């Protein structure tokens, strides 16, 4: 198997300019309104609570809009991502806004070595991050290594039940086609385009991804020395996860099943603290 990091990084590197230019990331809104927050972080606020004064790190931060949003809530934030262009874009974005975020390029598994052990009150991870890593146990150990005793992990992520569904069936029934549990070998995709509206065409379209069951995630965190403090499942996601079967809430930007949305946990929010 090709090194998944090399394959995935090529895909993400190429998409950075399209993402930064897209309406979906709302960079212009951040510039116009000093209090503007990303839709993802705005959704997180009721469970996130007051983070002012905390030392935080956002893992797999991409172009930094959620990281800057956390900084606007009063946390002293760092961001880490494996894509050089993404980190450069994020740092330029933060500097332009005066957000005071420092961004670092590194693989998520190298975060402790790059950022320092037991330095953080908060580790934050957002939508669409865990599917890019092969081992949830190694990720949990990384989170534990970053957190101070009593420090908190906050993650909102696509639900593994959602990732197991075939979301490409615009017509007809949605089917349960993909692994729910972590597998040794990745799902290999070769697809053009991206998740924001853009006219850009891409040449690096191969990606390697993994799912991780909710029980696997919780167990990995417990084994790494964290105690679970909250687990909420949501019937919505901030993107069109199942095209043709979901309807957008124009106020929140969240998407739910058009019919009987209570059938599907689309995302979840997990919180845990370091012992």
From TrEMBL:
UniProt keyword terms in alphabetical order: Methyltransferase, Transferase
Domain of life of the native organism: Bacteria
Methyltransferase type domain sequence ranges: 58-153
InterPro entries: Methyltransf_12 (IPR013217), SAM-dependent_MTases_sf (IPR029063)
Listed GO biological process terms: methylation
Protein name per UniProt: Class I SAM-dependent methyltransferase
Gene3D superfamilies in UniProt: Vaccinia Virus protein VP39 (3.40.50.150)
Listed Pfam families: Methyltransf_12
Taxonomic placement: Bacteria, Bacillati, Actinomycetota, Actinomycetes, Propionibacteriales
GO molecular function: methyltransferase activity
